[in-house]
Amino acid sequence: MSVYIKSVRKNSLAAKAGLKKKFQLLSINENHINNFLDLQFYANEEILKIKFIDNNDNLEEVTIFKESETNLGIEIFSKKCRTCCNNCIFCFVDQMPSKMRKSLYLKDDDYVFSFIYGNFITLTNLSNIEFDRIIEQHISPLYISVHTTNPVLHKKMLRYKKKDFNILNKLKQLSAAGIQMHTQIVVVPGWNNGT
Fold first, then answer.
1. What is d(CA 20, CA 7) in angstroms, rounded to the nearest whole number?
2. CA–CA distance from 54 to each of 4, 19, 23, 124, 183 (Å)?
3. How far apart are CA 6 and CA 24, in angstroms?
4. pLDDT for 70-116, tens place per residue?
5. 117 CB contacts (<8 Å, ≥6 apart)?
6. What are the phi and psi torsion angles at 110 (to 5°)?
7. Under 8 Å CB-to-CB from 20, ≥6 apart: which residues?
8. Per residue in 27-65, pLDDT tens?
């Protein structure tokens, strides 16, 4: 995955290095850039080896030397919000009345939006690479829907297809890494009350 440059500030380090609007930004120091959090995190080094694809589809690389506090001068296009891969028995979006504004029907399950806006996520659609990236970049706090720590019941309630997912193990890993978490539970009588 990669991102596209929306704008390059005039006279910035990026502009002086030849980066331009609509270039596809691939990586910084061999770290893939998937969103603005990656850009901020990986562009904080003093030597930046940036790989990109220019507007003629040429794969290019530039090296930028910078002071740690100096901004690179790039704005990237906003990423599309990742939506939920679950089919929860209690999904409030599925229970919404029809014909309301479109944004109310978005099933958001994106860790970037959880960190920035406080949206609750389930962690079930994260790859191991993405989970490790949360820990590496110390993306904290996160807002996480838990519902139950029993892995069998958790899978039944959220109805996801992912194998070997254990919410309690994931929460312990995040906690051990110093990630602050705000959790929520939806109590569904007959399902998770008392578990």
1. 7
2. 10, 8, 5, 35, 43
3. 10
4. 889 999 998 788 999 999 998 989 989 999 998 888 899 999 999 99
5. none
6. -115, 120
7. 5, 8, 54, 55
8. 999 999 999 999 999 999 999 999 999 999 999 999 999
Q: Give the whole-angstrom CA distance, residue 28 versus residue 46.
A: 12
Cβ 146 vs Cβ 171: under 8 Å: yes
Cα-trace Rg, the chain: 20
Instruction: Please give the structure tokens belonging to residue 21.
Output: 């609007």
Residue 106 has which token pair? 């978005």
Q: Report the distance separating Cα 1 and Cα 71, nearest Å.
A: 23
Cα angle 175-40-118, degrees, rounded to a multiple of 5: 50
Identity of the amino acid at 181: M
Burial class of 178 by CB neighbour count within 10 A (0 to 12, 13 to 18, 19+): exposed
